[in-house]
Amino acid sequence: MRLVAWNLMHGGNARRMPEIALSLLDLKPDLAVLSEFRPAAGGQIAGVLADHGLVHHIHNDPPRGVNGLLIASREPLREIPTSVPLGVGSNRRAERRLLEVETPSLVVVAVHVPPDAWRESHTDTSARERVLARLLKIARDRREQPCALIGDFNAARADAGGDSPTPTGATALGQLATMGFVDAWRTHNPGVSEPTWVGPDGHGVRIDHAYLSSSLARRLAACQFSHAPRLSGHSDHSILVVDLRHSQTAQST
Question: Longest Cα pair distance anywhere in the chain, in angstroms?
């Protein structure tokens, strides 16, 4: 089973649509997680994926001009309603940043953590902190199940491979590791560094991740990045590609 995750950069646009669709289809995914999805533009990409077998779609219905998340799959999907409220006075920028679904063989949580400490008032907790707190709660609830947390975390932690930590978010990634979640890319790429996003100053950082629960990590076959679409300007993010072996349960059904 192949999972791919890609930040579309505001849903894509008409000029980039063919290249975006081809980049995804070339990877032959079984399940695709797309962040910065907007139905007006990204809906065309969803249609192309459906034409090529990824016929099951769930997105979190972002209003016009707002980024959301889309999960497209060959296998049936069931959305899991969030059990983690944003809280009183929640920051609206924390909405539509996580999308949790169940497939016949695993739970997938699509992730797009806000990049900045956006605040709507001086007393409000930032959207970034709220989303990370929700993500950690979901991870605690799902850690005994086959579960993939995958997408744009806008966070990195320092490790032996040379990754540069982000000012915030690194602690949350460390907490995921403490819960038993495995950094899929680092597992298959020890001792190296590959940025998935490069800022205007030329500094690159690996902020796109797949964290797998311990039971799902046993099915990990490979993990890599496709950098060509980013280098060609189709998005400002590289595509994350995760290959999983089929579970015994899936093979017997």
Answer: 55
Q: How far apart are CA 31 and CA 56, in angstroms?
A: 9
Q: What count of residues does the chain have? A: 253
What tokens appear for 117 in the block?
A: 């400490």
So where are the chain's domains? Answer: 2-252
Task: State the amino acid at position 47 in one-letter form.
Answer: G
Give the lowest-confidence range in 127-131, 132-136, 172-176. 127-131
Task: Write out pLDDT tens, residues 139-185.
Answer: 999 999 999 999 999 999 988 677 888 877 889 999 999 999 999 99
- The three-state DSSP-derived secondary structure of the chain is CEEEEEECCCCCCCCCHHHHHHHHHHCCCCEEEEEEECHHHHHHHHHHHHHCCCCEEEECCCCCCCCEEEEEECCCCEECCCCCCCCCCCCHHHCCCEEEEECCCCEEEEEECCCCCCCCCCCCCCHHHHHHHHHHHHHHHHCCCCEEEEEECCCCCCCCCCCCCCCCCHHHHHHHHHCCCEEHHHHHCCCCCCCCEECCCCCEECCEEEEECHHHHCCEEEEEEECHHHHCCCCCCCEEEEEECCCHHHHHC
Find all residues with CB under 8 Å of 236, minimum gap 6, and list them.
Answer: 7, 9, 197, 198, 230
Phi, psi of 238 (to 5 degrees): -80, 165
The domain 2-252: what is its CATH number?
Answer: 3.60.10.10
